Structure formats: structure tokens, C-alpha cells
């Protein structure tokens, strides 16, 4: 990254610190389907608590900011119009609930944070509020939520609905969902409502626990929050999605956003838009931290890394990658010639990830054409995100380039094999980034919450310029408005 000398004292300003999250999913094949066949991969053991305990200890040792867990509520059935290849290739199937291992991982770590993907589409806000307040308590405040709205037909059918909610309406519903949660998390309990007084046989003061009465377009409830305030009250809020509606939602609610692209130059305008929208809403645009997906393949030397990459390609499931991309974009890639130039118009599904579909309208020197052949080569290792192959210095150079060109704050680092890819990050990449002064050094403050890890010690609760602060007990009215 470029460095500018401070003319007043001749010193270089502090280097921007890069935040690294490990990106995983409670499934056999996440973004690199087929690697379960690799004898070095332990993905098939994720149904065991020991996998998650060992992973948490490894990430803690490397000073990784958080374990970011993706999730989904249905299979990918766009490819060939069937779920069969999704199941056969283990393309994010089967998948277990990512919330369950969190307490076990928190018990063996002090600093590692956890961010879980959960949808606003499938359960009442009260139930999610209770579960996430519990997780924030159990982790000592080391908990974040990646907010998504659901789009898969299979997921809606699983809960008895034939048709997913229309895209922009999903975000309108999610906006109300978040405001209900703020009322519960921020506005129900006074800071001193929990006041144990044994002599009075009184544990909490009911007069200081407000009943939240909400009657909106999508949700109605009348209740006090059943969990006392957790260390952060509101978990650190991530959001994924850069469509027009998604960007508006992120600028309003997100403290961190998760983005994906094959080029930093394509990402930059989207990030600039979100920061500008946040500024227009009275927020500090720099308070929104942006993480991009990124898959490193590391070796002690560039040559060693290239040899490792060639070995990994032997196990990649080309069809598994096409299953994922077909599902994300709504384009049945089985129907097109390998060298057919794809575009957004080829998407025949109404329900898809629009920010990923947008990639097919954007090319770069790295990807001058989007064809099924190109996708088949790229999607089976790292999804459609960038893959960097090289020594620690080579990969660190690439990370710094992305930070500067796209205005990023950090990365969600995907794996090809687990725990091998994460071991390489901890043992090879982290020391290189520390040597460059762009990654937190060892021996930092312990026991910080997820929000403090991002904003600094002392910032446990929502910032004052965040919309959720309007719902705090001290400033809101009886119904939390």
C-alpha cells in the first residue's frame, strides 16, 4: 500500500491494519467442492465437535479476528433442474446448524470471535433475539450476526411456502425485523434493571424492564425481552449483498459488510456507494468495515504453492462448482455450450443472488469472458472469488493491493482443504503480515468483544451514529420507537 509521509514531523503514518476472518461452513463442500476426496482434508468430520474445537484453537493461535460461518436453508437445484448433483457432489450438502458448536469453541478460546449467518425470512424476531442474546452471553460478547434475506425456492418450500418473497420486499421486511430486534435488545431492559438484592428477595426490577409493543407491516409482538442484556446487547452486525436494496440496507444497519468479486476495481464503486449512502444517513462512512472473500494457496515459495495448487486441482469437482454457480445466479449452466458468452439475461430464475449475477456483466483483465468453461475452472476452487497462489510475500502483496484498490478493511479467507489452508494462514501468512506492520501483533488486549475488536476497546455497544442507538432504553419511548 502507498505510504505518505506526514510533513509536520517527517514520520510515516500508522499502517492500516488488515482484519482477517476464517471463512468456513458447517458442510462437507463449501467453496471448493470435491476436496473431501483429498486425504489431507477433514471437511467430512465437521459433524464432530472436535473439528470445531481444534479449528478454534488454531485460529486463536494465529490471532485471527473471527470465524465467519456461512449457512444456507436449502439445496441448489438450478443445475439440470434437479437437486441430485448438489447432493452427489456434496455442494454445500449436507449441512448442519452452525450455532451449535459456538459455545464449545468459545470455551477453548479467549479472543476469537464468531460470526454466524442467519436469515430474517424464516423465524419470528423474538426467537432469534433470544438465541443471539444467549450466544453473546456465552461467548463473552465475541459474537456477530451476518444478516441475510433468503431467496432459495427449496428453502421456502421446506417451511411450507411455495414462492420466495420478492427481492426488494425481502429487504423491507428485514429492515422492520432489525428494528424489532433493536427494541428488544436495546430498549427493553434498563441498564440497572438486573439488580440482585437478596434481603428483598428481588433479582430484577420489573419496573425497569419495558414491554415492547410492535405492530408493523410484517411483524407484531407484545413482550419484554426474556434475556437480560448481553455484553454487546446487539451482536456485531454483518451484512452480505450489494444490490441496490442490499446496499441501502447495509448503509442503514451494517457495521461490517461481506462482499465478493473477482476484481478489486469492480468492487470499489460498490463500496464507495455504500459509504456514501451511510454518510447521507448521518453515519461515519469509515465505521462500515468491508471484508472481501479471498482464498489463499500458500507455500514456503511460489513454486511450492504452485505445486500445491496443481495437486488440489486433482480433487476439484467441476460439476460441484457449476451446481453452486447455477444456484447462485439462476443460470442453468448445463444448458449452454462451454464457450458460450454468458450474461445476466441468461438467468431464468427470479430467485438468485443478484450481486453474484452482476459479475457476469463485469469483466476484467483476469476474466475477459464469462463462459461455462471459465466458470468450471474457477468455481471449483474458491467459488468465484479471487484465489492467490504463492509464497507469504506474494499473497501478502495481493492482499495489500486489494485493500488499497477496493478500499477494504479485511478479508474472509476461504479454505481449499481444512485445516490445512488455515494452518498455512496461521504459520506462513500471519507472520509475514505482522512483519509488514499491517496485522495486529501478539500480546494485545485479551477478552475484547467482537465490536471492540473492530472499533477499539470500550466500544461494546452500538455507535451513537448507528440507527440502533435510537432504540436504547434511555432515549426510546414505551414501545421502543
TrEMBL record:
Pinpoint the Luciferase-like domain residues. 37-404
Signal peptide coordinates: none
Q: Does the keyword Ribonucleoprotein apply?
A: no
Q: Which Gene3D superfamilies match?
A: Luciferase-like domain
One of its Pfam families is: Bac_luciferase
Keyword match Phosphoprotein: no
Check the record and name the InterPro entries matching this protein.
Diverse_substr_monoxygenases, Luciferase-like_dom, Luciferase-like_sf, NTA_MOA
Parts forming coiled coils: none
Enumerate the UniProt keywords alphabetically. Monooxygenase, Oxidoreductase
From the Swiss-Prot or TrEMBL record, what is one GO molecular function term? monooxygenase activity
Q: Which family does it belong to?
A: Belongs to the NtaA/SnaA/DszA monooxygenase family.
Alphabetized PANTHER family for the sequence: ALKANESULFONATE MONOOXYGENASE-RELATED, XENOBIOTIC COMPOUND MONOOXYGENASE, DSZA FAMILY (AFU_ORTHOLOGUE AFUA_6G01920)
**Listed NCBIfam families:** FMN_nitrolo
- What is the protein name given in its UniProt record? Xenobiotic compound monooxygenase, DszA family
Organism in which the protein naturally occurs = Clohesyomyces aquaticus
Amino acid at each position: 500500500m502507498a505510504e505518505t509521509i506526514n510533513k509536520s514531523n517527517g514520520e510515516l503514518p500508522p499502517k492500516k491494519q488488515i482484519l482477517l476472518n476464517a471463512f468456513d461452513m458447517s458442510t462437507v463442500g463449501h467453496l471448493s467442492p470435491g476436496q473431501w476426496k483429498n486425504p489431507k482434508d477433514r471437511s467430512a468430520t465437521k459433524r464432530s465437535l472436535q473439528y470445531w474445537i481444534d479449528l478454534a484453537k488454531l485460529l486463536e493461535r494465529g490471532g485471527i479476528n473471527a470465524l465467519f460461518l456461512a449457512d444456507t436453508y436449502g439445496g441448489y437445484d438450478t443445475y439440470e433442474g434437479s437437486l441430485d448433483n448438489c447432493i452427489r457432489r456434496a455442494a454445500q450438502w449436507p449441512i448442519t446448524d452452525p450455532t451449535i458448536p459456538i459455545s464449545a469453541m468459545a470455551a477453548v478460546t479467549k479472543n476469537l470471535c464468531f460470526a454466524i449467518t442467519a436469515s430474517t425470512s424464516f423465524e419470528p424476531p423474538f426467537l432469534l433475539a433470544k438465541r443471539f442474546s444467549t450466544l453473546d452471553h456465552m461467548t463473552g460478547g465475541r459474537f456477530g450476526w451476518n444478516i441475510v434475506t433468503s431467496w432459495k425456492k427449496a428453502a421456502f418450500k421446506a417451511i411450507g411456502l411455495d414462492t420466495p418473497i420478492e427481492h426488494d420486499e425481502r429487504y423491507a421486511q428485514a429492515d422492520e425485523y432489525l428494528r424489532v430486534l433493536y427494541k428488544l435488545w436495546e430498549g427493553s431492559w434498563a441498564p440497572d434493571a438486573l439488580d440482585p438484592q437478596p434481603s428483598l428477595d428481588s433479582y430484577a426490577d420489573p419496573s425497569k424492564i419495558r414491554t415492547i409493543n410492535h405492530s408493523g407491516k410484517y411483524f407484531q409482538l407484545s413482550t419484554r425481552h426474556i434475556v437480560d442484556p448481553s455484553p454487546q446487547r446487539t451482536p456485531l452486525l454483518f451484512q452480505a449483498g450489494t444490490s441496490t436494496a442490499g446496499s441501502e440496507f447495509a448503509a442503514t444497519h451494517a457495521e461490517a459488510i461481506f462482499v465478493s468479486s473477482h476484481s478489486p476495481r469492480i468492487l470499489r464503486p460498490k463500496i464507495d456507494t455504500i459509504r456514501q449512502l451511510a454518510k447521507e444517513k448521518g453515519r461515519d462512512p469509515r465505521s462500515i468495515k468491508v471484508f472481501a472473500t479471498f482464498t489463499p494457496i500458500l507455500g514456503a515459495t511460489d513454486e511450492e504453492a504452485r505445486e500445491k495448487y496443481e495437486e488440489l486441482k486433482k480433487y476439484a469437482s467441476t460439476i460441484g462448482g457449476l451446481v453452486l454457480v447455477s444456484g447462485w445466479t439462476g443460470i442453468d449452466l448445463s444448458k449452454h455450450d462451454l464457450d458460450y458468452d454468458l450474461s445476466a439475461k441468461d438467468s431464468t430464475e427470479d430467485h438468485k443472488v443478484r450481486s453474484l449475477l452482476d459479475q457476469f456483466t463485469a469483466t476484467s483483465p483476469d476474466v475477459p469472458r464469462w463462459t461455462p468453461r471459465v466458470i468450471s475452472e474457477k468455481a471449483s476452487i474458491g467459488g468465484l472469488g479471487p484465489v492467490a497462489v504463492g509464497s507469504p510475500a506474494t499473497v501478502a502483496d495481493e492482499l495489500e493491493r486489494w485493500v488499497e484498490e477496493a478500499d477494504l478493511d479485511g478479508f474472509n479467507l476461504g479454505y481449499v482443504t481444512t485445516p490445512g489452508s488455515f494452518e498455512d494462514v496461521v504459520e506462513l501468512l500471519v507472520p509475514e503480515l505482522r512483519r509488514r506492520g499491517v496485522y495486529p501483533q501478539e500480546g494485545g488486549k485479551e477478552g475484547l468483544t467482537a465490536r471492540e475488536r473492530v472499533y477499539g476497546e470500550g466500544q461494546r455497544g452500538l455507535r451513537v451514529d448507528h440507527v440502533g442507538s435510537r432504540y436504547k432504553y434511555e432515549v426510546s419511548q414505551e414501545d421502543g420507537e
